[in-house]
Amino acid sequence: MAKDCTNFINPACPSLGTFVIDLRNTGFVIQAGATWTLTVDSPKKIDYTNFTEGNQVVHGRCGGSCGGCNKNGLYVEINEALQPDIESAVFPVCTV
């Protein structure tokens, strides 16, 4: 979710909430045709969503008047051609 609280008393402050989803180096992509919807908090608009890097990165901006936007479900797909090499894996180490 991206959300903001614009100073709606002063329309000269048209800020919108922004978001970035970055799935690079994971082997996952955001499903083609993904969309966002406005939240119920009286948002003004979805300004843009921009998919790059073969649907692995999406940038968006939305909101206004304490509103925002949500993804209509978050659907990711595996793209085997983009999976990282197993040698790049880092094994977790517990420290106490």
UniProtKB/TrEMBL annotation:
InterPro entries per the UniProt record, alphabetical: Pept_M12B_GON-ADAMTSs (IPR012314)
- Is the keyword Metal-binding in the record? yes
Q: Which residues form the GON domain?
A: 1-82
Q: Which domain of life is it from?
A: Eukaryota
Print the keywords alphabetically: Metal-binding
Example of a GO MF term: metalloendopeptidase activity
Q: Does the keyword Kinase apply?
A: no
Name of the protein described by the UniProt record: GON domain-containing protein
**What species is this protein from?**
Patella caerulea (Rayed Mediterranean limpet)
